[in-house]
């Protein structure tokens, strides 16, 4: 639970930082990190709430599917966070909005895989 509290504080700080930064590159990096923290705190909350839900078979399967989804989303956002510096170094002069593609990969791929 200490980790979840610290992640919520990190999310609050990143939200304030995103609003304060006007540059698109710095803001995009913060948004990617924000989504990573949201997936981490979501998986931790589902894990803490689902530890006692093993009596009912349907609830147990739902908790397992949610955990699978949020952990896969965490891995995908970690991949995106590692891939973003490569894009910054190799594609210096591109200025299209990559966030919608990052959202599709970060949340869409785990959804397709879990469903």
What's the layout of helices and strands?
Elements: H1 2-20, H2 24-50, H3 57-90, H4 99-114
Could you please describe the fold and organization of this structure?
It comes from Cherax quadricarinatus (Australian red claw crayfish). This protein is mainly α. 83% of the residues lie in helices and 0% in strands. It has four helices and no strands. Helix 1 runs antiparallel to helix 2 and helix 3 runs antiparallel to helix 4. The chain is flat, with a radius of gyration of 16 Å. The two termini are 29 Å apart.
Gist?
The chain has four helices and no strands. The chain has 115 residues and is an all-alpha fold. The longest helix has 34 residues, at 57-90.
What would the keywords be for this entry?
115 residues, mainly alpha, 83% helix, G-protein coupled receptors family 2 profile 2 domain-containing protein, transmembrane, GPCR_2-like_7TM
**Based on helices, strands and strand pairing, what is the structural class?**
mainly alpha
> Can you tell me the residue ranges where pLDDT is under 50 for at least 5 consecutive residues?
none
> What's the tally of helices?
4
Please give the alpha-carbon distance between the first and last residues. Answer: 29 Å
Radius of gyration (Å): 16 Å
The fraction of residues assigned to DSSP E strands is: under 5%
Relative helix content: over 70%
Shape: flat
Mean pLDDT level: 83
* Biggest pleated-sheet summary: none
Task: Encode the helix/strand succession as letters.
Answer: HHHH
| β-strand number | 0
GO cellular component, one term: plasma membrane
Signal peptide: 1-20
GO biological process, one term: cell surface receptor signaling pathway
Membrane topology: Multi-pass membrane protein
């Amino acid at each position: 639970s200490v980790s979840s509290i610290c992640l919520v504080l990190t999310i609050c700080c990143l939200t304030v930082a995103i609003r304060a930064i006007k540059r698109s590159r710095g803001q995009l990096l913060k948004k990617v990190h924000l989504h990573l923290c949201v997936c981490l705190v979501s998986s931790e909350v589902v894990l803490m709430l689902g530890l006692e839900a093993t009596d009912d078979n349907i609830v147990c399967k739902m908790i397992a599917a949610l955990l699978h989804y949020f952990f896969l989303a965490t891995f995908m956002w970690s991949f995106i966070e590692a891939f973003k510096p490569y894009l910054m170094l190799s594609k210096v002069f591109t200025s299209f909005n990559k966030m919608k593609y990052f959202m599709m990969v970060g949340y869409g791929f785990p959804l397709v895989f879990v469903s």
